[in-house]
From TrEMBL:
Keywords: Isomerase, tRNA processing. The keyword Isomerase applies. It is an enzyme of class 5 (isomerase). GO terms for biological process: mRNA pseudouridine synthesis; tRNA modification. GO terms for molecular function: RNA binding; tRNA pseudouridine(55) synthase activity. It comes from Lagenidium giganteum. This is tRNA pseudouridine(55) synthase. Its EC number is 5.4.99.25.
Length: 367
């Protein structure tokens, strides 16, 4: 099937099911769209569900300019620690915590809000010495994970759930083949939270670190109760929300309908499942170029940046004064009656001429 530009280049807001590896999702998209040019705006662990944003075709070039903030719903299980900081890992410690109250958790969570230094999980895709941490852990090599500065805008406690949850007892972990592992039930507490955060934040780390700061108020034992992540759903990635996400099966069905109608000469049936590149960049201010400026920009000549030619980001007041700074990324449009999105450009300060110019550019290359 011959696909239009809109059907070949854009962003796919896919709902990743539990158990699927993010790289498996990329592989599925490569087959569906018949291209190797697939990127992502942040992976999800296999245990997690929710929004997985994939860049298809030329959209991969614009990934770095998308907003990286994300939102999650997660469930922390207290009284349990694991080697992966989620419930899929090997249980390291477990202790019943029937005394834990909702107020204890509510009072602990605010310390993880703001610009904080967070220690990522040892089992993660981060690298140490050029190798993935999870590979080093699997090969039983020493792993030292330094803290990283992350931004957590808010953590809301949505629900507090006491109960008995199945665990694997660590006192029989010597059965490496799993033949002797048995399940038991541990009376503990769970907290459902909603997190708004910047890119690079690990919700697993929030679960672990929250468990580390909670202790029995009346016990002489100063050890923490521990915590691990039991559930995780990404509800938003940048401007892409879970409400607008689609499954791979829905994408496959939609593309098949379009293919069938194209073969029968009926044109395109349903709209493309891809979100236009422009729609993912509306958080950036824009600039409109005259016919001469457009010709210079498309010809890779320098173009003067004038604030009067600019518009604020989508959602901002239209009368907001634009104050471009060197390094800013701008959406670039033609000055046609219906402006055409041409691409993206970076503001550069030209000391020789003492003015701001557009230099580096990503041209959409419409065809």
């Amino acid at each position: 099937m011959t696909m239009t530009h809109a059907q070949r280049h854009g962003f796919l807001n896919v709902f990743k099911p539990k158990g699927m590896n993010s790289h498996t999702g990329v592989a599925i998209a490569r087959k569906l769209f018949d291209t190797q040019r697939i990127g992502h705006a942040g992976t999800l662990d296999p245990m997690a569900t929710g929004v997985l944003v994939l860049a298809i075709g030329r959209a991969t070039r614009f990934l770095q300019y998308m907003t990286s903030d994300k939102a999650y719903d997660g469930v922390i299980r207290f009284g349990v620690t694991t080697d992966t900081d989620d419930i899929t890992g090997k249980v390291l410690t477990e202790r019943p915590v029937p005394w834990l109250r909702e107020s204890d958790v509510a009072n602990a969570l605010p310390r993880f809000v703001g610009a904080i230094d967070q220690v990522p999980p040892k089992v993660s895709a981060l690298k140490q010495g050029g190798q993935r941490l999870y590979k080093l852990v699997r090969s039983k090599q020493e792993v030292n994970v330094p803290a990283r500065r992350v931004i957590i805008d808010s953590i809301d406690l949505l629900d507090f759930l006491p109960g008995d949850f199945p665990e694997v007892s660590p006192d029989i972990e010597q059965a490496m083949d799993g033949s002797q592992l048995t399940s038991c039930f541990l009376h503990t507490q769970q907290a459902k939270i909603h997190v708004e955060c910047g890119g690079g934040t690990y919700i697993r780390s929030i679960a672990r670190e929250c468990g580390e700061v909670l202790q029995h108020p009346d016990s002489l034992d100063s050890s923490s109760i521990g915590g691990t992540l039991a559930e995780l759903t990404r509800t938003r990635s940048g401007t892409f929300t879970i409400a607008d996400s689609v499954t791979f099966e829905e994408v496959r069905e939609q593309m098949q309908v379009n293919a069938d109608q194209s073969v029968n000469g009926l044109g395109i049936g349903k709209p493309t499942p891809l979100v236009p590149i422009e729609a993912a960049l509306l958080h950036l201010p824009s600039i409109t170029l005259s016919a001469i400026g457009q010709k210079r920009w498309l010809g890779f000549s320098n173009v003067i940046v004038r604030p009067q030619d600019m518009m604020p980001p989508g959602g901002a007041p239209l009368d907001q004064v634009c104050d471009p700074q060197p390094g800013d990324a701008l959406r670039v449009y033609s000055d046609d009656a219906t402006p055409v999105f041409l691409g993206l450009s970076i503001v550069y300060w030209c000391p020789k001429r003492s003015r701001l110019e557009l230099r580096k550019r990503l041209i959409l290359d419409l065809d």
